[in-house]
Known about the structure:
By secondary structure, the chain is an alpha+beta fold. Helices cover 26% and strands 37% of the residues.
Amino acid sequence: MKVENKIFLDKENDVDFATDRLLSTTATKVVLNIPKNSVLGISVHNFQMLKREADTAGKEIIIESIDEHVLELAGLVGMTALNPVFKTKERIVTDILPQRSGKNGSKKARSAVVDEEITEFSSEETEKEEPEEDDDEAEEAKDTGEEEYVPPPGGREKRRRRERGKGRGKIFLWGGILIAGLVGAFLIITYVIPHVTIQVSIKKTTADFSNTVVISTAVASSSLSGSTVTLPGQIISAASNLSFHFASGTEEYVQTKATGTLVVYNAYGSASQVLVATTRFVSPEGKLFRSTERVTVPGSKIANGTTTPGSTKVPVVADQPGSDYNVGPSDGWTIPGFQGTARYDKFYAAALQPMSGGFVGTTTVPTKDDLAAAENQATQKLEDALTSQLSLLNSDNLTILPQSTAFQISSMNATPSKDGSGFDVYVVGSAKQMAFDATMFQNVILGSLSSEASGTMKVDEFNPSYSTTTPDFTKGTMSFTATGTITYEPNIDFNKVKSEIVGMTSDKLKATIFALPGLKEANVSFWPFWVSTVPTNQANINLEVQ
């Protein structure tokens, strides 16, 4: 009893995969279901291999497919081929070849039987249908003793149609390549090959100048009177404070008093109140401090029924040395001098910052030389910091002469470090500098040397040298002497010239170039030799300015 098995293939399964499936089954009758457009339909050799392996393994193989091409190839090698939809053979083909003698004198014939019906073709009919080129193939088969494969009826015609189609495709392909080549050649000749090189040399003028320059914050524009140039000036100011720690010094027993600042309020009336130096103030902790300066406390103000106390700041120092007086920020400081009067509750003070510096004990005290070295170092570092600030503030990139900057140290204090490891220097200072616009000065010099209208000339080099000067920051003025050289030439927009000469003839181009102001010499050359018009592509215009 035969065991039958049906194997379903996917269209991408090749002949090796189908053969493995065929041989791996134990069934003696195998139905291979091959989908439409399967890769097996590429060549008849795939079906020859399947049939050979099935015959070797002693298996009966049936091809099942809805693809007419697959059924036709299977039938050509003598395999049973069925359409599963119609359960019939889609095509009945039998090719009977005439007997031919091989080299060994034997006669061989090949027949392909599809289904159970046979249609015979005589050798004469077959030979009449064969084209002349097939005679060569038959002769080759005769010489080698191999069987000749004769395609089914209609196969030769299909092959002829395919070959004619390929021929027409080649004609279209080469025609397209030729057209594309011609278009490319036209574009290259028109836009790529043509070049024009224009070399121009413009006359430059160099002149010396010597002028007195006055910088003033009171003027808004530049002016020239004789050899004196007046320019607007600008004062740039900066202020900063720095604290530095120094480890040097000698150990000594010291007593220092805490210091700080109080804000004194006057809620008593609209009249101001004078507080003399050494006026006493008492903190909420009961620590006594005295003012170090004479101050006047403004009177209170009344607006919309609301009274706003007048206020002022006053520096104070502790009455006794020691760290107990290093009290923190607090309100409710009183003035004992007003006790027993109506002013006592209406005059009060507050410490917005802590009191500091109170100390009793052994600490490092700087020597005179230590203080001098520390002050010099602190001064230099503060000036460096102020110079950096001034540079940032000079957003317009104005010119700053070396002598036009003034530094001022407003205060410098040295106090023992809290941890006793040395001393600290606190320095406060400011800086000012007078600045001006050197480009504005350059334009004034250019205007005094050239008779051309403003904007028609441009400066190539400007090399001024300025004399020593000291600004008067109170008056906002500074004066000095400026000498040097200036080189200038006509201000020509060559990008505009390049865009304007596009498409010009050779004669018109030369007329345009030789009409340029201040032209010293010029040379125009076209390439290739037959080109006589400026290219429309500006990339092919080489304009060299010397």
